[in-house]
Amino acid sequence: MRANEVHLGKIVKDGKVLILAMDQGMEHGPTDFDSRNINPEYVCEIASKGGFTGFAVQKGIAKHYKENYSGKVPLVLKLNGKTNIVPKDEAYSPPVATVKEAVALGADAIGYTIYVGSPMEAQMFREFGAIEKEAHDFGLVCVVWAYPRGKYVKEEKSKEMVAYAARVALELGADIVKVNYPGSVDAMKWVVASAGKCRVISAGGSKQPEAEFLQKVRDIMSAGAVGLAVGRNVWQHEEPLRMAKEIRKIIFGE
Ligand code: FBP
Asked: What's this model's pTM, rounded to 2 decimal places?
């Protein structure tokens, strides 16, 4: 067990992390959903029964559907967000909820997206700086979605850019950094090394064939990452709870 394991509490189990993300309604729009998963109750049930160590949602979902997940899976409240209607050039995700709201909703962690390299980077750093301090004062875990993005970023998923974003998350005080998979085990090892004591988890990405996705999860874990924050590859799956189980076998060795 690492020194700050206790502090990380329920979000980490046996040193590993498996978060179900459902903030795509805002980030991508209802286009990500079908007639089943458009209903947040359906995804809340997957979050509650799938053995996840966290459920990452915006405050509207957290409030309206509290009875559907509360007490069954730890809450990771996203405190900023944006749509993908706005152009990526000026990538910026404004705060949309506060740490106090996260505490009132019973969150164990806050989630915050930072677009490293964006022209809006300075503002995002400032806003996260205040949020990180307050969240830690309340004993909440800080999970940073660290994405290189904006007009100065040529390759969002290159080894060097993903590693840079992970390092920024460490230096800004994140406990856990969520990155996009940079495409190979070697590249991911460099990302993990760059993040130091900040634990690295990978985003799932758009839906892939099951075997291909599970191989990616194996690669992510073999590079030294501690888990995933996954959305579409679980709740878009025909059998989401079985898919969650397959992922758990790899991450927790169940
Ligand atoms: P997925 O596993 O579905 O890719 O979700 C991970 C996630 O980080 C979500 O939390 C977020 O809504 C989305 O991806 C952001 O993706 P993008 O790279 O399009 O901004």
From this structure: 0.96
